[in-house]
Amino acid sequence: MKTMKALSFLPGALALMLAASPIIPAFTNPAFAGPGGMGERGMKFNQLNLTEAQQAQMKQIHDAARQQMDAILTDEQKAQMQAARDQRQRPNLNLTEEQKAKMKAIRENTQSQMEALLTAEQKQKLEQLRQQWRERRQQQQQSN
């Protein structure tokens, strides 16, 4: 129960980092649920069996990244992000090229730091889960 509670912050926390630009699919993006994929992606962390230490370190990494991303967004963009999150929609933030580049760098750095915390077995499991997600997403796109 404690593990589930501790993991519950991860999908929402990472949503902010990933919502601004879908260029790099990193860990999870639950605030902006797409058809069929949201819950499955959010389950990645549950299936990785993270230790409490890993969870705490990931939270620290996430919090730092969120602060960096918040600093990049204008007040208007932050309001648009919150409104979209409340409606469970993807925001259109009209990011500048500079903002996009900074967001991408933060996401890549955050993903790298988080993956560095994983054991070899967890990394392997994460890659399997990502592959399954990609296959399901491709099937959904083909059926649309």
Largest sheet: none
* β-strand number: 0
Unreliable residue runs: 1-42
Q: What's the N-to-C terminus distance?
A: 38 Å
Q: What is the 3D form?
A: globular
Amount of helix = over 70%
Count helical runs.
8
Proportion in β-strands = under 5%
| Gyration radius, in Å | 15 Å
Mean pLDDT: 76
SS-derived structural category:
mainly alpha
Task: List the helices and strands in order.
Answer: HHHHHHHH
Structure description:
Helices cover about 70% and strands about 0% of the residues. It has eight helices and no strands. It has helices at about 1-5, 10-20, 40, 45-50, 50-70, 75-85, 95-115, 120-144. The termini are far apart.
Helices and strands, with pairings:
Elements: H1 2-7, H2 9-19, H3 38-42, H4 44-48, H5 52-72, H6 75-86, H7 97-116, H8 120-143
Helix pairs in contact: 2-5, 5-7
Keywords:
144 residues, mainly alpha, disordered N terminus
Summarize the structure.
The chain is mostly helical. The protein is built from 8 helices and no strands. It is 72% helix and 0% strand.
